[in-house]
């Protein structure tokens, strides 16, 4: 174990304890604490930090501890020169914690001037990461440029060669030429040349080549219209969201190609990774198994339906593997048999495949139950786990009482654990707990509990089942996962993840966290959705008002739109809450290019054309996708009896209204006709029953102010119009909805209409998608029959504020 760290001591997450930092809200610091603060402040000052920088640094416990340690190791008793101080500060911020055993070596070389520039120190840090066990000083010095002095003549010669190579571009662009790449080209031949000297020489030789700047050289070049500055993605979890191009958003795979996660096999270089004496040997075996392949996994619990938050996880895990020619496992985390059902196993796989991803392998945590049990026995034998008899209610909360059984003899825990396995205890009578502490402060998490419930895969073979905290890291190890990607709340379990793999001496993957996705105006909790269903507010898990993936599919959301939406979110570590409008915009972008057009009248008003010529319908050609001839056309009939939207007629004249009125004609889309009101026919109660109209071909003389959609010889259909299920953005927030989420239901979230649609959609199948002109995008619901189509409104069209 490096740095004198054992698995047990790593259980607190490797955090530094610095007694000199006063904590907010605490009592005034003692005299000893103040003295310690002053002592550390002086050390920081000797390293060359300004008074303001010292104050800022003291707020960072871990950095302060490292700098104080460096000052002690360097034996600093007087202020160091600025160059050495800057390098030591750079060392403190850039050397990962797991390589601090090499601090004495690096401090020595910086302090005596052998590592005299940042490039050499950066090379030295990389060297100790790549050669962690033993450092060969001769090789180290050669790789890090120790003793290498680059003369001014060498700089001048290297710069001259680079200038000559780029002369034509420099002369053409003059002082608008970007000299940054020239620095890189010189660095390639003279890696240990001082950057300042290289920059000065480049500027001098360009001045010699071009002469003094002219007036036009001082004018900034104009930026191309619409040009966007390209952002470089940082290492997760602080990657910036994907930029949208003018034509289309980045796909998840395209975005994830820009993410700087670790290279497989270089796990030990990541922040917080715990290195043991066996780490490098285990990594070598891992690379033999995988061939350096990227491996991820999506590990849902099969006790509910996937929702929009899972879509982000699916895209990140499958997308990162795809972006790096790797593979992604679909692993069911089936460790809670009492809540698992076959429909959830099937539903999860269906949704993963619907989003367009194919798992490399489909596995189950239960596939590894035997190995997990053997490792649990090993932990007991090593004194790192014990059988406890505290009741579940005693272990709840943030500060449960310590277990009186924590220090029981190993042989006793071994026997009791076997008794648990053999069914000699009732449920809740005994658990197996791990001797570790999570970052959140939870002490000794439970690894195994008793459940007398048959398992979906293993039947009644087991009556003890492992917990998530115990299972997921070890299953990741068994499947040789390279990147264990999970949401931010699991950061508190990262230390136990590394602790557990190292404790059983198996390969340890790297855990990376990203921010969880929350959607406004909905709930995604399995329990709360179950309540909505049981109370009759929604029909089932796939009710289109929900944000489960099956509900979004039923509503008509294309999987590409969901994937593109996830790509726009990026990989920030922050938890984000998104308005549904952002997702709907991605849906609209896809459907606008793919959904065939049709005409449907949601609230019909009949219009009889009194001067229609003849008794036969006139065929009218309509483009399937306007502007895209390759998508073809379809034909609809135009006849003497048509139906229009009731809202497209006003009996009384209304200023600014551009559609049909008794004194105003209107055009009919696609057929080139203009209709005018001849008579308003009423019912016995005085309501408008139907219209008698006349029609004539559109011309410059009768050019209408607007064109409306219509249907002739239509057939009936059912249309379901959906609105937000909840009235407030955060229905689960008691400060906003004190009565609970069920009191926030929008009573108008579903409107069902008996409507009319043109004949082009006849024969449509479930999930087929259309744009009903001037109305919105609609999808055929699975409730449809050949004689009765049901359409769900997916999203409306973009509002035209000028339309009336």
TrEMBL record:
InterPro entries: aa-tRNA-synth_I_CS (IPR001412), Gln-tRNA-synth (IPR004514), Gln-tRNA-synth_Ib_RNA-bd_2 (IPR007638), Gln-tRNA-synth_Ib_RNA-bd_N (IPR007639), Gln-tRNA-synth_Ib_RNA-bd_N_1 (IPR042558), Gln-tRNA-synth_Ib_RNA-bd_N_2 (IPR042559), Gln/Glu-tRNA_Ligase (IPR050132), Glu/Gln-tRNA-synth (IPR000924)
Listed name of the protein: Probable glutamine--tRNA ligase
Pfam families membership: tRNA-synt_1c, tRNA-synt_1c_C, tRNA-synt_1c_C2, tRNA_synt_1c_R1, tRNA_synt_1c_R2
CDD domains linked: GlnRS_core
Feature: compositional bias, Basic and acidic residues: 215-234
Annotated source species: Scylla paramamosain (Mud crab)
Nucleotidyltransferase recorded as keyword: no
Ranges of compositional bias, category Polar residues: 1-12
Reactions that this protein is recorded to catalyse: tRNA(Gln) + L-glutamine + ATP = L-glutaminyl-tRNA(Gln) + AMP + diphosphate
């Amino acid at each position: 174990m490096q740095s004198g760290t054992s698995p047990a001591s790593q259980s607190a997450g490797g955090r530094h304890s610095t007694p000199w930092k006063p904590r907010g809200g605490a009592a005034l610091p003692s005299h000893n604490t103040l003295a310690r603060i002053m002592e550390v402040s002086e050390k920081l000052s000797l390293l060359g930090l300004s008074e303001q920088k010292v104050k800022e640094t003291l707020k960072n416990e871990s950095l302060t501890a490292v700098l104080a340690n460096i000052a002690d190791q360097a034996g600093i008793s007087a202020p160091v020169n600025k160059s050495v101080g800057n390098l030591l500060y750079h060392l403190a911020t850039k050397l990962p914690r797991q390589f601090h055993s090499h601090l004495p070596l690096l401090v020595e070389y910086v302090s005596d001037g052998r590592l005299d520039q940042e490039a050499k120190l950066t090379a030295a840090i990389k060297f100790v990461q790549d050669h962690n066990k033993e450092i060969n000083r001769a090789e180290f010095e050669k790789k890090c440029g120790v003793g290498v002095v680059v003369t001014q003549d060498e700089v001048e010669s290297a710069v001259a060669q680079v200038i000559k190579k780029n002369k034509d571009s420099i002369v053409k662009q003059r002082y608008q030429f970007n000299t940054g790449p020239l620095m890189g080209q010189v660095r390639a031949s003279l890696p240990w040349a001082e950057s300042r000297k290289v920059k000065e020489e480049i500027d001098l030789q360009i001045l010699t080549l071009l002469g003094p700047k002219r007036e036009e050289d001082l004018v900034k070049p104009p930026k191309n219209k619409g040009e966007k500055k390209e952002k470089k993605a940082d290492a997760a979890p602080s990657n910036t969201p994907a930029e949208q191009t003018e034509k289309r958003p980045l796909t998840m795979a395209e975005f994830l190609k820009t993410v700087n996660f670790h290279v497989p096999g270089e796990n030990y270089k990541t922040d917080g990774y715990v290195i043991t004496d066996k780490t490098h040997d285990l990594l070598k075996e891992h690379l033999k198994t995988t061939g350096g392949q990227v491996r991820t996994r999506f590990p849902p619990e099969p006790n509910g339906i996937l929702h929009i938050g899972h879509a982000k996880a699916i895209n990140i895990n499958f997308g990162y593997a795809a972006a790096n020619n790797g593979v992604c496992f679909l692993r069911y985390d089936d460790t809670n048999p009492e809540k698992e059902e076959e429909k959830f196993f099937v539903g999860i796989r269906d949704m993963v495949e619907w989003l367009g991803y194919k798992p490399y392998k489909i596995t189950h945590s239960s596939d590894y139950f035997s190995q997990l049990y053997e490792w649990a026995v090993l932990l007991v034998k090593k004194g790192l786990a014990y059988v406890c008899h505290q009741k579940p209610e005693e272990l709840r909360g943030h500060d449960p009482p310590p277990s009186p059984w924590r220090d029981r003899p190993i042989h006793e825990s071994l026997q009791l654990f076997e008794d648990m396995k053999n069914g000699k205890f009732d449920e809740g009578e005994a658990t197996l707990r791990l001797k570790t502490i999570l970052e959140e402060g939870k002490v000794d998490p439970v690894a195994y509990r008793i459940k007398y419930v048959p398992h979906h895969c293993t039947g009644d073979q087991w009556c003890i089942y492992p917990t998530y905290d115990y299972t997921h890291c070890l299953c990741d190890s068994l499947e040789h996962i390279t990147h264990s990607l999970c949401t931010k709340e699991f950061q508190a379990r990262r230390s136990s993840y590394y602790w557990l793999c190292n404790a059983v001496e198996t390969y340890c993957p790297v855990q990376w966290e990203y921010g969880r996705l929350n959607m406004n105006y909905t709930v995604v909790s399995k329990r709360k959705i179950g309540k909505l269903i049981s109370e009759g507010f929604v029909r089932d898990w796939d009710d289109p008002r929900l944000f489960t993936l099956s509900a979004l599919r039923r509503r008509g959301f294309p999987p590409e739109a969901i994937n593109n939406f996830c790509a726009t979110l990026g990989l920030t570590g922050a938890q984000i809450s998104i308005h549904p409008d952002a997702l709907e915009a991605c849906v609209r972008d896809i459907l606008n290019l793919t959904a065939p057009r049709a005409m449907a009248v949601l609230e019909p008003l009949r219009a009889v054309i009194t001067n229609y010529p003849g008794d036969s319908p006139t065929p009218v050609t309509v483009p399937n996708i306007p502007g895209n001839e390759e998508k073809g056309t379809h034909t609809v009939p135009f006849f003497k009896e048509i139906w229009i939207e009731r809202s497209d007629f006003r009996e009384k004249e209304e200023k600014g209204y551009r559609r049909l009125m008794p004194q105003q004609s209107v055009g009919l889309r696609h057929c080139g006709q203009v209709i005018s009101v001849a008579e308003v026919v009423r019912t016995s109660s005085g309501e408008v029953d139907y219209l008698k109209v006349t029609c004539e071909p559109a011309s410059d003389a009768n050019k209408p102010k607007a064109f409306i959609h219509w249907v002739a010889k239509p057939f009936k259909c059912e249309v379901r119009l959906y609105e937000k299920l909840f009235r407030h953005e955060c229905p689960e927030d008691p400060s906003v909805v004190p009565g609970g989420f069920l009191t926030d239901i929008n009573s108008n979230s579903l409107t069902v209409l008996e409507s009319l649609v043109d004949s082009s959609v006849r024969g449509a199948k479930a999930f087929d998608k259309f744009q009903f002109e001037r109305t919105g995008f609609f999808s055929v619901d699975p409730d449809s029959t050949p004689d009765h189509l049901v359409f769900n409104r997916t999203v409306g069209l973009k509002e035209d504020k000028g339309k009336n």
